[in-house]
UniProtKB/TrEMBL annotation:
pPIWI-RE RNaseH domain segment(s): 590-889
Ranges of biased composition (kind: Polar residues): 912-921
A Pfam family reported for this protein in Swiss-Prot or TrEMBL: RNaseH_pPIWI_RE
InterPro entries (UniProt xref): RNaseH_pPIWI_RE (IPR024996)
Residue ranges of the region described as Disordered: 892-921
Feature: compositional bias, Acidic residues: 897-909
Protein name, entry field: pPIWI-RE RNaseH domain-containing protein
Signal sequence, start to end: none
Amino acid sequence: MSRPLDSVARKQARLLQFRTAPSDLGQVIAYRPDAGALDLAGELAQEYKRNVGSGLEVQPPYRALESVLRAAAGTWARWQWNDDGYELLCAAPISAEDRRDVFSYWAEAVVPGPDGRRIGEQLAELLARAEPRPAVLPEPPRAGRRSRGWWPGELARWRLAEELAALEWPRNNGTPVRFSLCTDGRLAAIGHELPAEPDRKGIVRHLLPRITIGTAASGHSGRHALTVNAVTTLLATSWKGVATVLLANPDQPLVVAAATDGPPWKRRLNVPAVAASRRLAALPRLSRNVPPFPEHLADDALADAALGPVWAVAPASVRTPGLGRGHGMEFFRRLEEAIDGRCEKYSHRNPVFIEVPGIKVPPTESGSRVSGPIPLEWIPAALDAASVGTLLVPVLWSTDEVRTRVKAAIAAQWGPGEGWKAVEGVAEPAVGGRIEVVFLHDKAGVLGHGPRTSVERERDLAQMLAPYTREDTLVAAICETDWDPDRWYPSVEDREKAEAEDGKWPSKQALARLAATSQYIKQAPPPVPTHTREGKPYNENYRAKKVASRQNGLDSSTANVLREILSGAGATDHRLGAAFGKLPLENWWHIGVHVRRHAQRRTPGRPRSTEPAPITATLTAMRPTGGKDDPWQIWAYSPQAGRWLSHSPAVTALHAADLAWDVTGYRAAADETLQARAAADIVEQALIATRTQLSVPAPAVLYVDGDSAEYIWAGLTDEALGQNPPSNLSRPASWLPGHSLPRAQRPLATVRVIGDLERIGRPTGAHMRTSDGTWRATDTTNSLFQLTTDDGTLTYPDFLLVNVPRVWAAGPAGRFGKDETRFDSGSQSKNGYAHTATRFTVIAQSASADCDLIGAVAAVLTNQGITSDVRQSTPTPLHLARRMDSTHPYYRRTAESLEDAPEAADAADDGSTAQEETASL
């Protein structure tokens, strides 16, 4: 394994991220057909548009072409538009005959009929006559685009996958594991599936281990890098909701991957991939490379207890009974060892992250993190900082168990006094009169399920709360409903009807229209049974632990509701300031910027909407009001409110209105999208307003999510870090947020936050310098690290905060996979937890910015949760801005679902959820 440099650092992070060099791409051949191919390609696209649907801007499915092309060639290939023409790129020579057959059969499947056959044959003939020539390496994308679609990056990922596919992975028992390379660039352990025990119906579920290669966020180092991650994908037992189908033959060099389309309940294989593969499989010279896909998605193609030639990948929304998730840390350590020891091109090419001294970011109470609710004596100061006079907390309950549990939690946290009876319908003081609590029995079912609209619920709720509200009170309600998100429904229609009549969302919006925030209490799950399903009595000790665990979970969730009530009102305690430890607490505004493009739902059988998708844009600003023992102020902004407000009024204004912000009135420039233009303008207006609308003028630090914001501001991309804006920039606001402001009014810096492990790399521990000056490898670390040059002499304002999952930190019971891989385990029911990380890249916008201090502050604001006792995934300002969106009553109607992007579901393991990248803004 690689060893760190002989530096003065106490620790160096170990990370599954590897830098690449241009020579790693190897030979790249370009076949560029004659000029006539351009007209023919346009004619094919027009013919495809007429066949698929008139008036829609659609393109032929080139991914299907690349899938069968790579299978035929046995290596990487790509059909792309470049330099005012089309060309075929490949990593090895492809015969003219193969080029002709693949393209003609694919075109025939795309546009059936005589016109499609004619165009396809002409294009195929031009491509067959094209002479090979060296490919020209293009410049990386710069203006608001990530380098993920850049073909040298795609080929670099393919080259590393080829090296990993050639390795054998040792097992404690049994034959070694090999991963097969798929045409989509992923690796799959074909033949090494992980089975669970048969369920009551005798069905055996299987997990397919996979390795994915990602494009890393290189940050200020500016060097293209790759990441390695591993996931376990549930294999489907029916075709419902299948996202991807893998087809492999024993002697096949590549596994052919084909996507599915159609509604989730009636999937079908991609037609061009099926038709082209079946035609090519009939050719003797290609029958080994391109297996024929089945014509139809028949359920009998998937065996219940034995694996056949077809592997169907199920979406993440499908449950995995009897199966855990993830590989565990041992597998990632073996990956690290294999690449360092047996992949010479990538060995010792890890970026150097050294520990930042003097900053504690522990996962428990032993260090600077503050846990527990806001202490009783500090609540008045927190309410003062939030500009709240009296907080009215109505408890709208339905079941006695919930009422008893909420009463006990209020008595423990807010101290209403001994002998508190919590009389029904009587507002009683707590926290010295700063909070008033009133229990109201929802006898009329105002919060209950049914077809009643939010307007009708608003009228009833207004009548219930009218006797208790005053001009100087802020209302924050605790509500009870009995919605079960895991409830099973016999049909999609039944589920949609139940969700439409779920009482939580219309009542939440009704309360928002009454200027009231709300939190919904968790109902008690069914009691722990006394007997097993077979009728045998449970062991008493086992049952006692289950009962205690159930009650502890209910008590914890109820206590957290009270914390969220105060947080929703904008009240914070000293925990944020105290977490800074020895770091200076500067009088800055910390502003989180959250932008999300909405999903456009498609009705099966109808054409897609041509209207641009709306967006949500929210911002929160927070600052310390005094020293480290004083609370913080929180303000918020949304386009619906149109100005900065205290946190609670801004949230209720957003939740009371439609979440979508229409972008059709904006005008985009160059290749900018309407969503990017709208988001940049909204954020710029909000930053201009901070000078006059926030409580005090002070310098500001911005926090943005890199995955969603790089499409909006070109200056956030890796290629633009440290660069000046280009002379042809259409608008200053599209470079960085706040860039259009006068130089003296710009933010100090913008912090790009990335939490996607596909862009960071999986942490595997650290190298630690011992007292005698030697280095030893550690399995875990929770330190803050900073990116340096290869010799360790210069640091960049680029930070890595490694997280140890809470379950892992709890003890040996949660460390399944620490010393074994899932391949070697006899129990497949446990989750193989591994470590995660968050990356902070500081981009200075002012000459006076202390970027190292800003990066450390971002780590502290991530490590110290604002309400919970565990680390957040993003800094608190960004966390709060995102929560304004995600807690909207109808957020689920506009969010991307896992079934909309099913390939995002391949990783829901290892202590975090790896989501698909957000839609391009």
